[in-house]
């Protein structure tokens, strides 16, 4: 797919981290971008700064998602690319010591269900809404109408202690890719996912000043290069998955060869 000013894209979680890096990369390539994010203040500021459109969207809400797509399409036209980076998840071990009672407690079914909504259901929600819109577009070269890039995680394969919800549900995101790509193949819509390792996004950067030893340890844990990933490196891969029409039904790690230990 040609990446230029004729292309319209939606990036969820586009106000920070991996999503923001992807928004910037798309805008630098001339693409019309709609930022979907719950952080209205930051999202609008970024949109004004780089010439994008901000849509306040809660990925946990069908109504909010549909309204966001409607606003984006009214301004930029039907998107041909969706890069879904936003996530909502709760951590916790399946069963762990309860410091208050001295006994044991479990990650509640309710907390797991919230993570399921914020990781797996939201991925399906955003992808299926985008695909429905793409289906009515005029086909491009090879009959392509659009492309969807989901964000999974290295935790989908190397889930650590406390990541029972996140790891299993990110594995579910990878599980969406092949059947969804097959569902959409006759419509010319591709589906792929990216599994980032440890990236230097705001949640990780806090360790740099607060706990320098931990920060150094995280960097050293990566086989090569011995550093956390740069958000721009995620964005580069996302753009390649948009432009390379032969990339379909792939789940790709970008992680400096790290394999996460139990802890």
Automatic annotation (TrEMBL):
Keywords assigned: Oxidoreductase
Sample GO molecular function, one term: oxidoreductase activity
Pfam families membership: adh_short_C2
UniProt cross-references to InterPro entries, sorted A to Z: NAD(P)-bd_dom_sf, SDR_fam
Name assigned to this protein: SDR family oxidoreductase
Source organism: Sphingomonas cavernae
